[in-house]
């Protein structure tokens, strides 16, 4: 089965510091997309960043960037200058596969320490 | 642009009762997803529609769950009869036309179901 693994159930970071959330995935496809979604407490899930596998350059969105290692099937999220509003569950997701389905990891709960 | 709408936001029912959830996707979004998210876990896809056709329902417990998407727009998800293990947040999401997985999914606020 195609899987997405987030090995860190919880992490904490001091406000203004940098934190990296890890994600590995399994796929037999050569072309696919990777996503990081953020789910704040009691709020809607929103997309943080997206990476297309055929692009060598790592995606960046303001304070959020990824380290995409295609050969290692690794897709980590780096949050720089952490803010209190970054506290949330973060889900890594991979898609599409042959069935055009997105698969989510189990999530990492990020705590921001003031 | 209006987001994905879901109702109700909360529902409490007793086991063996039935319940229905409603979703209205973003206008023009061809693909609609229903996910089940159990507390502390990632979303699990229950069913995916492309317009009004089912693309994937491999993880939908068909003996008790059913879903339809009328005219390729709104969708309803029904559970009958409910079990205790169905307690979860049910998320609806939609994405624009094209290779579904390539595009951002827009999520609704979810319906929190508690089965007692």
| Shape summary of chain B | globular
Characterize the biggest β-sheet of chain A.
6 strands, mixed
Assigned CATH superfamily of chain B: Immunoglobulins
Q: Secondary-structure element order of chain A, as H and E?
A: EEEEEEEEEEEE
Strand content of chain A: over 45%
Describe the main β-sheet of chain B briefly: 7 strands, mixed
Q: What count of structural domains of chain A? A: 1
Task: Give the distance, in angstroms, between the N- and C-terminal Cα atoms of chain B.
Answer: 37 Å
Structural class label of chain A: mainly beta
- Counting structural domains of chain B, the number is 1
CATH architecture verdict of chain A: Sandwich
In the CATH hierarchy, the architecture of chain B is Sandwich
Taking all Cα atoms into account, the compactness measure Rg of chain B is 13 Å
Distance between the termini of chain A: 40 Å
Description:
The complex is a heterodimer of chains A (114) and B (116). Chain A has 114 residues and is mainly beta. Chain A has a single domain, classed as Immunoglobulin-like, CATH 2.60.40.10. Helices cover 0% and strands 49% of the residues of chain A. Chain A has no helices and twelve strands. In chain A, strands 2, 5, 6, 10, 11 and 12 form a six-stranded mixed β-sheet that branches. By secondary structure, chain B is mostly beta strands. Chain A binds chain B through residues 32-33, 35, 43-47, 50, 52, 91, 95-97, 99-107, and chain B through 3, 40-45, 48, 55-56, 91, 93, 99-102, 104-105, 107-110.
Q: What characteristics describe this protein?
A:
heterodimer, A: 114 residues, mainly beta, Immunoglobulin-like, 0% helix, 49% strand, globular, B: 116 residues, 4-stranded antiparallel beta sheet, 11 strands
Give a short synopsis of this structure.
By secondary structure, chain A is mainly beta. Chain A has no helices and 12 strands. In chain A, the strands form 3 sheets. In chain A, strands 2, 5, 6, 10, 11 and 12 form a 6-stranded mixed sheet that branches.
């Amino acid at each position: 089965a195609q899987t997405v693994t987030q090995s860190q159930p919880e992490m904490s970071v001091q406000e203004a510091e940098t934190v990296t959330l890890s994600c590995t995935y399994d796929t037999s496809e050569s072309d696919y997309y990777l996503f990081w979604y953020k789910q704040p407490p009691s709020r809607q899930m929103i997309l943080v960043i997206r990476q297309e596998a055929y692009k060598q350059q790592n995606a960046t969105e303001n304070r959020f960037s990824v380290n995409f290692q295609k050969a290692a099937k690794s897709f980590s999220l780096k949050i720089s200058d952490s803010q209190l509003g970054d506290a949330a569950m973060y889900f890594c997701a991979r898609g599409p596969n042959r069935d055009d389905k997105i698969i989510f990891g189990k999530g990492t709960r990020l705590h921001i320490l003031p | 642009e209006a987001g994905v709408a879901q109702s109700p936001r909360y529902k409490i029912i007793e086991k063996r009762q039935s319940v229905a959830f409603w979703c209205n996707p973003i206008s023009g979004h061809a693909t609609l997803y229903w996910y089940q998210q159990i507390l502390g876990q990632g979303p699990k896809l229950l069913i995916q529609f492309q317009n009004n056709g089912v693309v994937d329902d491999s993880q939908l417990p068909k003996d008790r769950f059913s879903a339809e998407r009328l005219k390729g727009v709104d969708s309803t998800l029904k559970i009958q009869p409910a079990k205790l293990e169905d307690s979860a947040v049910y998320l609806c999401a939609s994405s624009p036309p094209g290779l579904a997985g390539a595009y951002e999914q827009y999520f609704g606020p979810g319906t929190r179901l508690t089965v007692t």
